[in-house]
Each structure stands twice: as structure tokens, then as C-alpha cells.
Amino acid sequence: MNGRHCVTRRRFLGAGAATCGGLLWPSARRLVASDAAVPSTDYFWYRVPAEGPYVDSQRGARAFGFTADAVYLSDDNARTWPHRAAFPNAQNITFSHVFANGNVLFATRTKLYLSTDGLKTFRQVGLKNADGSDYKIHTPKNPDNPGWYFATLTGVNSWQIGGREMLVWGNYCSVVGGATPPNIYYSTDNGETVKIAYAFGQNPYHRDDGSAGGGSTGTLLGDPDKPVFCRHIHSVAYNPAEDAFYACTGDRDRPEGFECHWLRGTYDAPADAWNWEVVVSERLNSRYKAGGINFVDGQLYWISDANGPLPHDRGLFRCNPADIADPEKHTMLFNPRYECANMIIQDGVILAGHYAPASPFTLGLIISPDMGKTWAEYDLKEFGPRSPVRFHQKNAQGWFRVDLRAGWITRAEVMFIKPK
Questions:
Q1: Residue 173 lies inside a defined structural domain of this protein
Q2: What CATH number corresponds to the domain at position 206?
Q3: How many domains does one find in the chain?
Q4: What domain range includes position 296?
Q5: Residue 101 within any structural domain of the chain
Q6: Burial group, residue 217, by CB count within 10 angstroms (0-12, 13-18, 19+)
Q7: Bridge partner residues of 387 (DSSP)
Q8: Is residue 254 assigned to a domain?
């Protein structure tokens, strides 16, 4: 495609491993002694973790997990869990991040918590506005749907910038759990302080009416002074070549304007201040309804989640960041033909996932081992209908961590994938 040799093959794998259930705490398969003994394709091995906590995030050899009533920390790639703390609300954890210094930040639907001592203790972290004042979490109409303030679709949410780790992420909200204001959050001090980098305007179609996704009646949520509104955020990523962040949002075309935007943001560290601009606003059937933003050697990569009216402008694209608003300057590296919004690129490997409800794949994975020169697609049918999301960078043993979601958002299992 586009002058590059493309080898595409679909492998409908048999039941090489036991079928995983759709329960929150599945009876998972035991680990085996070597990579060679686990199921594999031509390009990667794959497995689920050993029986134990739900593995929610990883960093190097560390992993953070939880059960119904406790949180856990592993020091050996999620094989054992020596650090544990009781946490009765663990079933409502929607986000976590392991910092390079060992701190762990995790969140329920509306609250943030930080541990700085390997889960011996943890404390609640108050969310701050950009000016340092307290951010007010809204009082929900329905206490069972308070909102998903911190959930995200991405697994890579932090970068080393100016000698320190900077955590920046956007919330994927107003689908389940209640209407929620979409925000971009950040922390520059290993989770000690979390602030608003950007707050979107009030969406009249996702008010808090007590329902799972919100509706056209009820309490307006968001910044009343911002004209730009969206349903939620799909991806936020950092480009070191520009020292700039990019974010893309979803989902609909509204009479007042589009909900699909691309934003570019820069951070002034001495002033602790952000400057954001909207660089693209487009229709939901375009390549700009997207996710999986990655930067490699200064080039921007993303994958399209286009839906709505035909024709759909889908594909996995690359361009110079300055050309994001000009489709004529984009290169399509691969066309998965169906909606996709999650992708990671690391060590020359591109790994992306299909959206199960809109694809003939049961659990579809897309991989290129060589930055887009060759491609393969696989359908891991033994897992049942699943959408891969939240691709975390490889752990100390070389395994990517991926959420498997029932439908699109309901937590089901975790998968580890190791490129060959």
C-alpha cells in the first residue's frame, strides 16, 4: 500500500487455549514455563495472566491490579503480588498508572488515590483546576451513575519531558457510569498533584439525567465558557520533536457543530500553564474520528474509528504533524476496513485492535513487525467477542498488556502479547 510491500493474512485460530469467561474476575489460565508453550501466531505469542488480581496497568517489572475488595502491586511482571491493601471500592476502579519512581496513582469513578510506598498506605488526591483551585466533581442525579471522570482508552499516558515524568490523559466518558464532563488531566509531580490541562465546554446532548450516558435533559456538565464540546476523549499523546501534545475526541455530528476534534497543546513548565488550539473539527465518518495517536521520529500515526453515513474514511495513517488538517498529505499505511481506535507503536512494532461490535472479527488484532512494511491480521476466536483497548508498553519481559472489553467498554479479561 502506498508503494510498500504489504503481506496481509487472516488466521482464524482454533481453541488453542481454554475459553475465557466474561466475568469481572475470570478463572484465568495458569502461566507456563516458556513462551514456546503458549499459543502463538506467526508474529506474536499471547496469553492471559495467572489466576489472581485483574492486571490494570504495568511499568517495567511492576504491575498494579485489583480484586473486588483490594488493590495489589507486583514487582515481577504480574507473576506474584506481595503488596496488598484493602480497598472496598476496588470494583469501581477505572484508571491506574505506575510511575517510574514507583508511585501508583489509581482512580475510581470520581476519586483519585496515590500510594508512594508500595501500597503500605494510600491517600486521596484532590483534583485541581488549572489555577490550582479545587475542581468540583458534580453531584450526580443518580448515585449509581456518578460519572467516569478518569477512565481512558489509552495505555501510554506519560512521557519523560525536561527531566521529569509527565502524566497526561483524557477521560473516555458518557457511555456507561453516567454523564461526565470530558477533561484532559495532568500531573508533573508523580501523582502528588493532578490538575485540569483542558476542560471542554458543555455538551447539550450528554447532560446528567441519571442515565448511563446522559441525555438532552438534566444538568449541563463542563466549562460554560468553552464553545468546543465533545462526548469524550479518545487519545492524548506527546510529540517530543515539537514538545507538543495532541488529543482527539468523539463522537457525533450535531446541529451546533462537530464533536470530533483534534487539539494541539503546549505546556509552559515554569508558568505551569497550557495553551491549546483546535486544529481540526470534522464529521464522524471521517478519518478524524480516530484514536491510537503515536509519534515515531517526529511523524504522527493514528487509526480511524470512522462510522455514521457512508462512505467511511478509514485506515491507519501517517503524516507530518503540521499536515494533520490536510488529508492530501496523509499516507495510508494499512486499511483495516472496519472501525478501530486503539493502537501502540514500540520498538518498530505496530499493534492495533478491532472494535468487536462493528467488525466480523471476534477478537481482531492487527500487527506490523516493521513499521508498516508488512502487515497481518488475526482473529483470536477462542476469547469470544472482545475489543482490545488500553495497550500498555511492554513489561520487563517484553509483553504488551491489553484490556479485553466485552462490547466496547465493559471490562472482561486482560491479555499479554509478545512480538516474536
A1: yes
A2: 2.120.10
A3: 1
A4: 126-335
A5: no
A6: exposed
A7: 405
A8: yes
Q: Answer for the pair 334, 375: CB distance below 8 angstroms, yes or no.
A: yes
Cell of 291: 484514536
Q: What is the pLDDT along the chain (420 residues), one digit of tens a residue?
A: 333 333 332 332 222 222 222 222 222 333 333 555 799 999 999 999 988 999 999 999 999 999 999 999 999 999 999 999 999 999 999 999 999 999 999 999 999 999 999 999 999 999 999 999 999 999 999 999 999 999 999 999 999 999 999 999 999 999 999 999 999 999 999 999 999 999 999 999 999 999 999 999 999 999 999 999 999 999 999 999 999 999 999 999 999 999 999 999 999 999 999 999 999 999 999 999 999 999 999 999 999 999 999 999 999 999 999 999 999 999 999 999 999 999 999 999 999 999 999 999 999 999 999 999 999 999 999 999 999 999 999 999 999 999 999 988 999 999 999 999
On whether residue 244 sits in a domain, the answer given is yes
CA nearest to 222, candidates 138, 148, 327: 138
The DSSP annotation for 70-135 comes to EEEEESSTTS---EEEE-TTGGG--EEEE-TTS-EEEE-SS-EEEESSTTS--EEE-EE-TTSSBP
Q: Rounded CA gap, 178 and 146, in Å?
A: 5
Residue 301 one-letter amino acid = Y
Q: Are strands 104-107 and 158-161 parallel, antiparallel or unpaired?
A: unpaired
Query: What whole-number distance in Å separates Cα of residue 359 and Cα of residue 344?
Result: 20
Instruction: List Cα–Cα distances, 50 to 6, 31, 53, 120, 415, in angstroms.
Output: 36, 5, 9, 24, 11
pTM of the predicted protein model: 0.91
C-alpha cell at 246: 495532541
Please name which of 364, 339, 334, 338 lies closest in space to residue 350, comparing C-alpha atoms: 334
What is the three-class DSSP state of 337?
coil
